[in-house]
Amino acid sequence: MKVRKEVSEFAKIMEEKLQENEHKGGWDNCDNDFLFNRLLQEITELHESLAELKITKGNGKGIARETMRECADVADFSMMISSNLKRKYFEEKSDNV
């Protein structure tokens, strides 16, 4: 499968954010309710960033870059939930999640 350029570029931002937070440990031991609540927090941060971008006068590249990073945060928490589901239902026979 050929990966679209936009998907590849976005995945790089996602990985960058994950590596920045590597010191916090992984998500394997986080339950999905916790991850979902963090996802909701990140959606709020994305909404705030989009609102800030909307009222920015002049060059908004810095805020746009931060908004793109907020998008990656939302995607990362969605990915963590998906990863936990895959591990629980498709890879292991235990109830770890």
Distance between the termini: 30 Å
Alpha-beta content class: mainly alpha
Number of helices: 3
Rg on CA atoms, Å: 16 Å
Give start-end ranges of low-pLDDT stretches.
none
Biggest sheet features: none
Strand and helix map with partners:
Layout: H1 5-20, H2 32-55, H3 61-91
Helix pairs in contact: 1-3, 2-3
Provide structural commentary:
With 97 residues, the chain is mainly α. It has three helices and no strands. It has helices spanning 5-20, 32-55, 61-91. Helix 2 runs antiparallel to helix 3 (61-91).
Summarize the structure.
The protein is mainly α and 97 residues long. It has three helices and no strands. The relative contact order is 0.15.
What are the key terms here?
97 residues, mainly alpha, 3 helices, 73% helix, globular
